[in-house]
Amino acid sequence: MQIYFVVILNQHLVLKVARVYGEVEKVGVPFDVQLKRIEVWWTNPTFYRPVQKDQNMGKHLSVFCNNTRSQPADHRMLYTIGVGGRVAGIAYVGQVCRASHSCSVVRSRKKSTVFVELHEFGHSLGFHHDPKMDCPRPYGFMGWKYSTFQPCYRTELLKRISLLTKSEEEEEEEEEEEEEEEEEEEEEEEEEEEEEEEEEEEEKEDEKEGRKR
């Protein structure tokens, strides 16, 4: 898993995220978070300027996602300050496998920044808030406790990976079926062509016989 962080303030925050998601015993699967790229905007790019002062963080997310989808990373994260009002961050839920939607916006606020990183990336992976996932207390980073990966997250993550794997297997099966159908169609077409050629040959032979008579 490679994450693309934009306008990041402290690289050690990324290491904290990697450490939390890297605990295989808790997460359930090997999960490698790597810092792919850091980009600092001293001046906001042209595509971002129309929303740079807008307090609706959803607009920031949409513009950022649409204009960074070509970046070679599994997830992109935008850091900002001064927007969003009381909203600390935002992300599309369960969209980490879609380049056009695998991104998040984090409002940098000193100590809480790493919590918001974990929280929004969790949303991208498909996690909802702790109460909605029936997580027992004490809550983890999808609730209100910093840097804690709860067992209920593991259950949700493995379930989503299973569904994704199943979907991939179904796609492979469908592709195999389509290939078999195409092969059958090709064989049928070849047989039809052979029959047509045989009929043409028979007609020619009949014509020759008719001329002889």
TrEMBL record:
The cross-references to InterPro entries, in alphabetical order and at most eight, read: ARM-type_fold, MetalloPept_cat_dom_sf
Which residues lie in Acidic residues bias regions?
168-206
Q: Which GO terms describe its molecular function?
A: metallopeptidase activity
Q: Where is this region: Disordered?
A: 164-213
Protein name from the UniProt record: Peptidase M12B domain-containing protein
Taxonomic lineage of the native organism? Eukaryota, Metazoa, Spiralia, Lophotrochozoa, Mollusca
